[in-house]
Design a protein that fits this description.
Largest interface: A-B, 62 and 62 residues
CATH topology of the largest domain in chain A: Nucleotidyltransferase, domain 5
Number of strands of chain A: 10
Distance between the termini of chain A: 35 Å
Strand order of the largest sheet of chain A: 3-2-1-4-5
Shape of chain A: globular
Order of helices and strands of chain A: EEEHEHEHEEEHHHEHEH
Helix content of chain A: 25-40%
Number of helices of chain A: 8
Radius of gyration of chain A: 19 Å
CATH architecture of the largest domain in chain A: 2-Layer Sandwich
CATH superfamily of the largest domain in chain A: ATPase, nucleotide binding domain
Strand content of chain A: 15-25%
CATH class of the largest domain in chain A: Alpha Beta
Structural class of chain A: alpha/beta
Oligomer: homodimer
Chain lengths: 303, 303
């Protein structure tokens, strides 16, 4: 049995189990690190199950560099009290088990690849469109980290200010994709939240346009075998066909692949795990943390 | 000893050797498949060295899907005679050795990662800016393929038509990055080739701006540990500091990493292998093709 922590800025989802069919979860509010981490530790300690490893998918920014003195920390977050918090280390020390640690979106991508809409694929992309826009990519069966980790939502996209004068709300980039198309951007633009905006509102066409520009960019760079769109804004199902139509127009049959043309409905999809991608991804991180202790080499690497 | 083929639309570079310090190359013009492939086969057969495997980095589009009936083919190229050409199969059949096959830019990325500016890194990106704009990525030590392969140059970027009314020359997308910033786009825009455009021409500032928009996008999505810029346009060294300055302004210190800030001169770099990235990448593909026959599993995969 494994422990799972989906660490969000508002709530922590804690889980104990071994797979999607065997998972018990609770939610606790995110207060101070001392209190919230203690509550999580107590949940795992009080379980009748023996926990072999814990996985954590965390809000960020986080330090994922192996060997870094602050590996496993939440680093320069604006969230009060959580700045420079040793989340992974605290859990590992308290429970004495291996801990897997990654970003919330990388965990969700791994969860979907392990048990959800990306199951059986070697390359897939999970994107969340909600409070922000972010994503995690699985490439050749491995989570993409690179230098730091992706910041999928901060890509620059075409923005025609004559037809859409909204300047965007990203404090760093203004009208990057997140600045134009996140949930808070929709609220700022229309004065109505994505949850409440009517289906026939012009805002949805524009939202689909910007998200499709993002999708075309991600496809050109990562060539995923499937794209999974989660998060609060994507809870509105009428948005999917709007995005698929716009994506088709933008890609203009340049890339020859059934999935990107006739098969598009099965290419741009909802999470297979519903709202459990993150916590199940954390479970997969735990599973991997335990396995990794017995592995040292990767003979299939190209270099 | 290995054989290497850098298969371009204008010329084939053929090599025999084992590493950058031990490589003999010749160039032959790309005429018809029958003639050019026969010439390549003769070069390897007539060598005094015994060739254990051959690697091919090819112009495209190519079929890289393992198990596909047209794996190893150049597929729907507009280049006369080469449409539906079984390049990898012809070489393998004629020489009776394992053949590694990939796109020209994936091969160049692999070559740079194996012996060049990406040596020692797990994640790096090779981009060529020349007749087109394309690239290959190494992620966790493996070439990124995904569904098809990346089309790095066909990303959409912001294009302010009021300051730059040039519509772009991409027949599929108009003003995608390649349509705005490839060598032919520069020639079409200014009537002067990138090779001949004076260093103080306003065109270079604009070129650096578009390429930096591409770089920011690739960094947000792939988070490479280094970016290697090759190709004809990048032969103009004054372009590098222009790109680095523009990149800094656009990324706006959002991603906290020394490499992306103070270390930028060492992050956006020229190919370590000069103009041999492609042929040496093909050599690395040959090396890998031989090794792969003894490998079957990848215990380090996340899923």
């Amino acid at each position: 049995m494994f422990g799972a922590i989906e660490a969000g800025g508002t709530k922590f989802v804690l889980g104990i189990g071994s797979n999607p069919g065997n998972l018990t979860t609770i939610q606790i509010p995110t207060t101070t690190p001392g209190s919230t981490i203690a509550e999580a530790v107590a949940f795992f300690r009080n379980s009748s199950e023996e926990i072999e490893a814990v996985g954590i998918g965390s809000f960020g920014p986080v330090d994922l560099r192996p060997g870094s003195p602050t590996y496993g920390f939440i680093t320069s977050t604006p969230k009060e009290g959580w700045n420079n918090c040793d989340l992974a280390g605290s859990i590992a020390k308290a429970l004495g088990v291996p801990v897997g640690f990654d970003t919330d979106v990388n965990a969700a991508a791994l969860g979907e690849a392990r048990w959800g809409a990306g199951m059986g694929l070697t390359d897939c992309l999970y994107i969340t469109v909600g409070t922000g826009i972010g994503g995690g990519a699985i490439v050749n069966g491995l989570i993409l980290h690179g230098l730091v980790h992706p910041e999928m939502g901060h890509i620059r996209i075409p923005h025609d200010r004559s037809s859409d004068p909204f300047p965007g709300i990203c404090p760093f980039h203004g009208d990057c994709l997140e600045g134009l198309a996140s949930g808070p951007a929709m609220l700022a633009r229309w004065g109505i939240s994505a949850q409440q905006l009517q289906e026939n509102h012009e805002g949805w066409r524009l939202e689909a346009h910007y998200l499709a520009l993002g999708l075309v960019t991600w496809v050109c760079i990562l060539s995923p075998q499937r794209i999974i769109l989660g998060g609060g804004v994507m809870q509105r199902p009428h948005l999917f066909p709007l995005i698929q139509n716009e994506f088709s127009a933008l890609i203009n049959r340049y890339i020859k692949a059934h999935e990107l043309n006739e098969g598009l409905c099965d290419y741009i999809v909802s999470p297979g795990l519903g709202n459990r991608s993150g916590v199940l991804g954390a479970l997969a991180l735990a599973e991997r943390a335990l396995g990794k202790t017995q592995q040292s080499t990767n003979p299939d690497k190209d270099i």
